[in-house]
Description:
The complex is a heterotetramer of chains A (about 350), B (about 130), C (about 300) and D (about 150).
Chain B: H1 5-8, H2 12-21, E1 43-45, H3 55-59, E2 65-69, E3 75-79, H4 89-93, E4 99-101, E5 117-121
Antiparallel strand pairs in B: 1-4, 2-3, 3-5
Chain C: H1 2-6, H2 11-32, H3 42-52, H4 63-82, H5 97-118, H6 122-153, H7 158-167, H8 171-174, H9 176-190, H10 201-204, H11 214-239, H12 251-272, H13 278-304
Helix pairs in contact in C: 2-11, 2-12, 3-11, 4-5, 4-11, 5-6, 6-7, 6-9, 6-13, 7-11, 9-11, 11-12
Chain D: H1 2-21, E1 28-32, E2 36-40, H2 46-57, E3 61-69, E4 74-82, E5 84-92, E6 98-100, H3 110-120, E7 123-125
Parallel strand pairs in D: 2-5, 6-7
Antiparallel strand pairs in D: 1-2, 3-4, 4-5
Helix pairs in contact in D: 1-2
Amino acid sequence: MTKIIVPIGPQHPLLKEPVSFQLTVEGEHVTESAMRLGYVHRGIERLCQERTYVQNIHLLERICGICSHVHTTTFCQGVEALLGVKLPSRALYLRALLCELERIHSHLLWLGVLALNIGFDTIFMYAWHDREVVLDIMEDLSGGRVSHAVNIVGGVRFDLTDDRRVTLLRQLNGLEEQVRILLGVVEHEQTLQARTRNVGRLSLEQIRRYCVVGPVARASGLDVDLRRDMPRPPYDGLTFQVPVRQEGDVWARTLVRMLETVESVHLCRQMLDLLPPGPVSTRVSRRVPAGEVVSRTEAPRGEVVYYIRSDGSDKPARVKVRTPTLTNLITLPSQLENVNMADVSVVLSGVDLCIACADR
Amino acid sequence: MGFSLRSIVYLLPQVWRVLRAGPLTVQFPFAPPELQEGYRGQVVVDAARCRGCSLCVRDCPAFALELEREGREEYRLIYHPDRCAYCGQCELSCQFGAIRLSNTFTRATADRDTLTRVLVDRRPSPPPLDE
Amino acid sequence: MLFKLLIFPGFLFLLLCAFVFDWVDRRMLARFQGRVGPPWYQPVADFIKLPTKEDTLPQGVNATVAAALPMLALAAVLTASVYVPVAGVVSASFEGDLIVVLFLLSLPALTYFLAGWISVGVYSILGGHRSLLQYFSYEVPFLMAVAGPAVLSGSWSIASIVAYQAQTTWGAVMQPLGFVLAVVGLIGKLKRDPLDIPKAKSEVVSGSLTEFSGRKLALWRLSMNMQTVVGIFLLVNLFFGESRFFDVLPAFPVFGLKALSILLLLATASAIYARLRIDQLADLGWRILAPLALLQILANVGIGG
Amino acid sequence: MNRLLRQLHLFEEIFSAFQAAFPDDPLTVQAMPIDETFVTLAPEHIHEACEILVERFDFYHLSTITGLDTGAAVELFYHFWNAYGITLRTALPYTALRIATLTDFIPGAAFYERELYTMLGVVFEGHVNLQPLLQPDDWDGSHPLRKT
C-alpha cells in the first residue's frame, strides 16, 4: 500500500492549540510520527527575569489558559518559602479551594474535548455546561473566569462571606450530581468505550522511564499524587482518595480524571466546612532575599515544577517552569506507533494536550 | 466488557431530561451575557482620590497604565485598554482606593485609536469638558 | 405531470423539505444537547451564503469532473425522488421501481468517493477511501433490510408495498428488526453522526469535500440534504405505509408526521452515540447487521410465503 | 515528624553512596525549603550520580533539568523526585559546555536536554536527536537565555 504523509497541525480541527504532527500513514494505519513544538513559544521564562515578582504573578498566570491558578500558586509558594513567611491558614484554604475548582474545570473541559474528538457532541455540550457552573463560581469568587489573579505573595486577594459559603456548598451538590452522570457515561456508555479502550496504552515501566506525571501516570498504575505524597497545608488535614487504574489506555485516563473530579468536589466541600477564620493575607516585602527554591504542586495534568532563584532584588534571577504537558508529550511517539488513523484523535486527546503550557 | 441493552442507549434518559429542561445557553449577541457579581470588568477611577503616586503604573504587568508627569501636582494618568489584562493589580496596588475594576462588561471594538483614555487629568489647564 | 415533477412531489417540494428537515434536525439535536439551536432561516441562509464564496480548486484537479460530481449526485437523488411516493402521490411508478431507487440512492456514495479520489489533498483521499469502506459495510444490511418489505408484499414496486401495508398493517410492526436495520443503514448512507466516518472532522477534516468550496460545496450540501429527505420518505413508504388506523386524517400531514418521527430517530442516534471507527463499523455491518437482516428476510419469507 | 526523619535517613545514605562513588569530588549538600535537597557535584560525575539515584534509591522521576547562566558559568540542576525532592547541581564552564546525556536510561529527559541545548547551548553528548525544541526552522543558533 502506498504511504502518504498526513499533516496534523499546526492548524487542524483536531487541535485546539498549534502543534504539528507528521503522520506516515499506510491505508488507515499510522506507521511513523514526528512532532514539532514551539508554535506558541512566548519566552515567558526570559520575560520573568525582566519583571518584578508582583508582575510575574500575572505573567505566569498566562502560561496556561486552563490551569492558570496552579501556576501562580506554585510560584507564590516558592517565593513565600524564599521570604520565609508563614501564610494565614485561611489563605491556604482559599488558594487550595480555587485549585480544586480549577481541577474540576480542567477535567470537565478535557472530557468535552475528548468527546468532541470522537464525535460525541452531546457529551461535549454536557461537560462544558457543567464546567460553566464551575467557571461561574470562580468568576464570582475571583473576578475572572480563567485568569483569576487572586494569588499574591503572602496570601490571596479574595475572601468568602458565610452566606456565599452556604450557596457555594449548594452549588457544589448540584455539580456533583452532574459529574456523576458524566462518570456514569464514561463507565457504561458502549460507543465511548469502543473508541477509547485499548487505545494509546502505556505500561507502568514506560510511564516510569518517560517520567510521566498526573492522570496519565495514574491511569497506568503509578500511584503518585503530590497533594498526598508531599503533604502541605491544607491537604494534610483533608481526606481524599487518589484514583489509580491499571489499564493504561485512554479509557482508564478518562475514568481516572472523572473520579478525580468527584474527589475534587468532595475536597472543596471539606475545605468549605473546615475554612478557618482569620486574615487572608500578610504583608511581605517586595524584595526577596537571595536564594533558590524548587516548588512543586499537583496541577490538573500532573506535577508542576518551578525553580526560582532570587538575587536579592525585586526581580527574580531565573524562573524555570516545567509544565506537566511537556513530560506527557514525550510519550506520544510510542503511543502513536501502529494505531489506526481514527485513533490518533483519541490518543492526542488522551494525554490532555496543553501546548501553550509545553511551549511557555 | 459489560454489554447490556442499557449500555447501548445509556444516554437516552439523560437526553430526554435535558430536552424537557429546555436550553441552557443564551443567544449572546442578542441577549445580555450572564455576569457574576464578582466579575472584574471595566476600569473606573475616582479622580478625586488619585494622588499621582504611580504605584499602579509600577505594578501593572501589562503596561496598560501610563503617568505623564509635568510637575508635582500636574500629571495625567493614561489608560490603554488594548493592553489591559483586567487582572486588577492596579486596584490592589492603589493605596487610596482610587482605581477600581467595576462589574461592567466591556465589549470588543474594532477601532484601536479610540481606546486610549485619560483617567485622571491634573494638568494646569485641562481642556474644556464639552469638547 | 410537469407539475408533479417540478412542484409537488418534485423538485420544489423536495427543496423545501431539504431546508425544513435540515433545520428541524439541527434544532432537535441542539435541544438534546441543551442548546437553543439555529433560527428557521439558517439552512436557507447557509445555502445562499455558500455560492457567494470564492470557488477554488487545488492545482491538478480536473475542474470539469469536480463540477460534474456534485451535479451527478444531485441528479441521482432527484431522479430517485421521482419514484418515491409522497403521501400516495407519485410522479412515476412501475413494477421494480424500488430497485431503481436503491441503485440511484447509492450513486451519491460513489460520487463522494470519486470526489475524494480526484482531489489531491491527503484528507480528501483518506475520506474517499473511508467512504468506500463504509459503503461496503452498510450497503448490504441496508439493501437486505429494505428488501424485507418487498419480500413480504411480493412486489418490487413501492406503491404496491404501500398498498400491501394498507391491507395489513405497518411494515415496522410486522418487521421491527428490519426497520431498525434500515434506519442504521440510512444513517450510514447519509454519513450522519455516529457513522460520519468519511467526514470525521477531528480525523480527516472534512473528508472528500475538504477541497470543495463555493457553489460546488453548496451543491454537495444540497444533494446531501435532499438525500436525507428521499431516504426518509422511502423508509416511511416501506415501513409506515398508509394504514387503516389513520384513515380519518388527511394523508399529507400524517405522512409528514411519520417522516419527522424518523428524523427524530436519526437525531436521537446522533445525540447519544460517539462516532465509530471504520473497522468497528465493518464489524458491526458484517457480523451483526447482515446476519440479522438475513434473519428478517427469512422470517418475511415465512410470513409472506 | 516521621516523614522528616525518614528523609534525613535517606539522604544520609544517598550522600554516603555518592562519597563512596566519587571520593575526589568535594560534595556539598544544602537543605532547601519545601522538602528539597541540593547536592553539588562535578559535571563528569552527574551521569553516574543520576544512575545511582535512579537504580539504587528509586528516584525514578526526573522532574526537569534547569539551566541557568550565572554570568560566570552555566549551572545545571537535575531535579529528581520520589516523595522527596533531590536536586543534583553542577556548573559547566563556558569553555566546555558539554555533559553526558541522561537519555540512555531516562528517555524522558530528551525534551529537557533539547530545550537546554537551544536555550543555553549546552551540548548533551550521546543524545540521539539533539534538535531545537521550541525554536523556529530559521533559528539563527543564538541562545536566548545566555547572558553574553
